[in-house]
Structures are given as C-alpha cells and as structure tokens.
C-alpha cells in the first residue's frame, strides 16, 4: 500500500520542475493525481504514468479555475506550485512586473484554494488543504516582488490553516532554496554571463549544490500524507542550510 492510497490530488504547474516531480511522487504513493499546467505538450508526457490524468489550465484565469472545480467531484489535497521569479530590486520592478508576479504567485493560489477547499472529501480524515510552494522566506537580493509575493503566500497559508482547523483541513507550505529545475537554467541563461550567474547561485548554497526537484517532492508527499496529520499552518524550509 502507498502512503497516499485513495487520495485525490489536484496539482498546478505540473509540466516540469517541482510540479512534475510532485506529480510522479504522488502517483507512486498511490494517489489519483489531476495534474494541470498551461503547457499542454509537456503536460501530456505525464499521461504515460499510471494514476495521473492531465488538464490544461491557466491558473490566472478565474473562469477556467471555476469550470475545472465544477468538473472535480472530490479532492483531498490541493498542491499549488505555479509561480514566476522576477529578477531585480524595487527600482527594477515595473508596475506590470509587480502585477504579473502577484497575479501568478498569489492570486492564482487564492483562486485555486477558494474553488477547491469546499471540495475536500473527508475533512476529518487527515486531509490537507492548499500546499503553496513559496521561496525561502528571508529577504534575497534582486528578488523584490518575488519575495513580497511569497511572503503573501505564507500569510495566506497561515490564514487558511487558522480558519479551517476546526473542520479538519490543514494547510502548510514548502519553502525551498534554489532547486535544479528548467526554470532555474532559463534564468541563468538569460543573464549576461551565464557562467558567472551559475557561480553566484552556487555560492549561496552551503551544501555546494542545488536541491533536486525530487527532494522537494518528497516533502510534499509527507505533507499530503497522514504522517503529517498534526501539522498545519507551517512553512517547511528545505534549503540545504541557506537560511542558517
């Protein structure tokens, strides 16, 4: 038997990186995974794995989210992974950058949580509500709007946890350090000197390496399982000691 047998999990940003690793890890532990993403081509690759079904979804579109929620009869776990990393200080952040980051990093989680929280099938059965995946919570250079948006996600997590604890619904979030994902490599290649950018990213990792998406996914499995039944409202840091 798997650690997630019988659980239905809705997952966003599942086409690559942490989202893809989480989808595979959830399915391996026996969950029925409904994996969503805006990237249809990459998303379809997950259909080859037992226990995973896919749906194209733009989490910035309320109508799409509400329609999707109407199609899902029940859910045990909502895992929100969608996000965008803007590079720069407050002086480098235009209003359009701020609005886009807040829309994708915060508003999408608000919309998904509001739509799917009433769908929780058996709140008393050690279920987990939304599982936002914010960044490391201390301030980070050149991450003004990203840090602001992820601080908001942590506040949202605690609010949902406090408001619904009596109904047996838990809400936790995962705070990873730098993770080896396609998104990270795209950001490195976009810099003027990619080799120097890579060195800069590695310098702040006290372990001397990046986390793997699979390592972060294992923490998501734990939070989705009954093993974490007594945990709610927490920001789980998995950063290789970066914040020490």
Give your account of this protein's structure.
- There is one protein chain.
- The chain is of the alpha/beta class and 244 residues long.
- It has a single domain (8-180, 212-238), classed as 3-Layer(aba) Sandwich (Rossmann fold), CATH 3.40.50.
- It has eight helices and ten strands.
- The chain has helices spanning 17-28, 40-44, 62-71, 95-116, 144-164, 182-190, 194-203, 213-224; strands spanning 8-11, 32-37, 52-56, 77-79, 127-128, 169-170, 173-176, 179-180, 211-212, 235-238.
- The strands form four sheets. It has a four-stranded parallel sheet with strand order 3-2-1-4, sandwiched between helices. It has a two-stranded parallel ribbon with strand order 5-6.
- Helix 1 packs across helix 8 (213-224), helix 3 (62-71) packs parallel to helix 4 and helix 4 packs parallel to helix 5 (144-164).
- The longest helix has 22 residues, at 95-116.
- The radius of gyration is 17 Å and the shape is globular.
**Major sheet strand order:** 3-2-1-4
* N- and C-termini, Cα separation: 37 Å
Looking at CATH, which topology would you report? Rossmann fold
What's the main sheet like? 4 strands, parallel
> What share of the residues lie within helices?
40-55%
Strand content: 5-15%
Average pLDDT works out at 91
| Count of discrete domains | 1
Overall geometric form? globular
CATH superfamily: NAD(P)-binding Rossmann-like Domain
Structural class: alpha/beta
- Overall radius of gyration: 17 Å
Per CATH, the architecture is: 3-Layer(aba) Sandwich
- Count of alpha/pi helices: 8
Q: How are helices and strands ordered from N to C? A: EHEHEHEHEHEEEHHEHE
CATH level 1 name: Alpha Beta
How many beta-strand runs? 10
The oligomerization state is single chain
């Amino acid at each position: 038997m798997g650690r997630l047998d019988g659980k239905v999990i809705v997952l966003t940003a599942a086409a690559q990186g942490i989202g893809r690793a989480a989808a595979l890890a959830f399915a391996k532990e026996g969950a029925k995974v409904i994996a969503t993403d805006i990237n249809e081509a990459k998303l379809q690759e997950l259909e080859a794995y037992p226990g995973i079904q896919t749906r194209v979804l733009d989490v910035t579109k309320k109508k799409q989210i509400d329609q999707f929620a109407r199609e899902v009869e029940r859910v045990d776990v909502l895992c929100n992974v969608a996000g965008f990393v803007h590079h720069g200080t407050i002086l480098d952040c235009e209003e359009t950058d701020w609005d886009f980051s807040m829309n994708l990093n915060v508003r999408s989680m608000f919309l998904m949580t509001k739509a799917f929280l009433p769908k929780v099938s058996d709140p008393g059965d050690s279920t987990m509500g939304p599982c936002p995946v914010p960044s490391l919570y201390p301030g980070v250079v050149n991450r003004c709007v990203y840090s602001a948006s992820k601080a908001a996600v942590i506040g949202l997590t605690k609010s949902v946890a406090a408001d619904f604890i009596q109904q047996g619904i838990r809400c936790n979030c995962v705070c990873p350090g730098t993770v080896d994902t396609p998104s990270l490599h795209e950001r490195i290649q976009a810099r003027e000197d990619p080799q120097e950018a890579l060195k800069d990213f590695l310098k702040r990792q006290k372990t001397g390496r990046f986390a793997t998406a699979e390592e972060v996914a294992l923490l998501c499995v734990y939070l989705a399982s009954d093993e974490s039944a007594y945990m709610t409202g927490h920001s789980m840091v998995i950063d290789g000691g970066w914040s020490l």
